[in-house]
């Protein structure tokens, strides 16, 4: 299976993957006041997050699910995030998520 090895500041967070996935993503999101010319958002701050998740594609009659391995973990400037795309025989199980079943 295709999987993602994810580390933050040299510490391995997870190997994300599953045999029934059709989407697998590692996302770093920066929002809010990101530069000196940014019009200040209402809350006036900056949000920086790392998230790792996926979407299953299962046989007909089985529920599709959003899976999460890293759920909006706060990061900060200077953090080193490593996401390596690998071929793997196994991966870490996803964490319980608020997303759950899609059908």
In short:
The protein has 103 residues and is an all-beta fold. It has strands at residues 2-8, 11-16, 21-32, 46-56, 66-74, 81-87. The protein has one domain (2-87).
Mean pLDDT: 89
Cα end-to-end separation? 24 Å
Structural class, from helix and strand content?
mainly beta
Low-confidence stretches: none
- Count the E strands: 6
Helix content range of the residues, please? under 10%
Tell me, briefly, the overall form: globular
Main-sheet strand order equals 2-1-6
How would you describe this protein?
By secondary structure, the protein is mainly β. The chain has one domain. The chain has no helices and 6 strands. The strands form 2 sheets. Strands 2-1-6 form a 3-stranded antiparallel sheet, with no helix packed on it. It has a 3-stranded antiparallel sheet with strand order 3-4-5, with no helix packed on it. It is globular, with a radius of gyration of 16 Å. The two termini are 24 Å apart. The model has no long low-confidence stretch (mean pLDDT 89).
Topology:
Layout: E1 2-8, E2 11-16, E3 21-32, E4 46-56, E5 66-74, E6 81-87
Antiparallel strand pairs: 1-2, 1-6, 3-4, 4-5
Keywords:
3-stranded antiparallel β-sheet, 103 residues, 50% strand, 0% helix, mainly beta
């Amino acid at each position: 299976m295709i999987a993602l090895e994810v580390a933050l500041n040299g510490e391995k967070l997870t190997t994300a993957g599953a045999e029934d996935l059709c989407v697998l993503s590692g996302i770093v999101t920066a929002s809010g006041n990101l530069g000196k010319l940014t019009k200040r958002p209402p809350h006036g701050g900056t949000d920086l997050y790392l998230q790792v998740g996926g979407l299953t594609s299962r046989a007909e009659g089985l529920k599709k699910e959003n899976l999460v391995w890293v759920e909006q973990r706060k990061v900060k400037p200077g953090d080193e995030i490593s996401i390596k795309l690998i071929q793997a025989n196994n991966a870490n199980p996803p964490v319980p998520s608020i997303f759950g079943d899609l059908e």
